[in-house]
Amino acid sequence: MLNSTAIKMDVLSDLQQFDILRCIPAKTLQKYLPFFYFRIYKKNQRIFMEGDPRDKIFFLLDGYVMYESGSEEGSMLYLDIVKPNQMLAYGGIFTERYYKNTAIAATDIMVYFVPSHVFEEMLNINAKALKHVISKLSIILSLHQKRVQQILIPNAQERVLHTLQYLMDDLGVKEGKEFVIPCPLTALTISKISGTTRETVSLVMNQLKKEEIISVNAKRIRFHKPNYFKEIN
Fold it and tell me: Which residue numbers delimit the HTH crp-type domain (predicted)?
């Protein structure tokens, strides 16, 4: 695992890939570079756990991260996937002392992290960056409300279809007229996101593959007919 203070020029370029950090003037961001650290996590390593002190803010440079949240009884309540060039742990800025969920590397990942109090100081002195955080939180809340509504749909197969659409829209990379999700996804992962069983997910996906709507190679889903999912709303 690599953990080192960042080299000035490389980090400034890397950090400016993130929307929120582009809101901060380069001269100001450069002043805070000594507080940023780089780290590599291997697949399935935990970045932080639910209940840990919320002392770091992470910036996902490469790879995919899975958020998990469970009940006290150990049952899964929530699961989400974060793609590259996203900040981890938007929720709780200025207010929460502990992480509300667990973050696990879904693939090998590269991140930068900065102490939470340093990042919050940066926001306090930059209204544009603070406004970006507020806007991002509103978007995340809206998306999560939509997901909750879809999970409450009684028909389990419809929930799987809505989940596939959500994953395509959120994680899909356009290739010609098709979309592919670079992050490997198992039927178990999709079942957790959709609130269904693994058997239901397999049933739906096998039918979609038979109709050549999707294909799966090395757990990566390719959407041959993206409009099919738009029509199920």
Answer: 154-227
Q: In degrees, to the nearest 5, what angle opens at C-alpha 68 toward C-alphas 142 and 151?
A: 50
Q: How far, in Å, CA of 149 to CA of 144, rounded?
A: 9
The reported pTM is 0.85
Backbone angles phi, psi at 155, to 5 degrees: -75, 115
pLDDT at 136: 86
Query: How far is Cα of residue 142 from the mean position of the Cα atoms in its chain?
Result: 15
Count CA atoms within 13 Å of residue 6 on its CB side.
25
**Residue type at position 213:** I
Under 8 Å between Cβ of 224 and 218: no
Element (H, E) at 174: strand 173-175
- Residue 22, both tokens: 């582009």
> What pLDDT digit, counting tens, does each position of 142-167 carry?
877 777 776 677 899 999 999 999 89
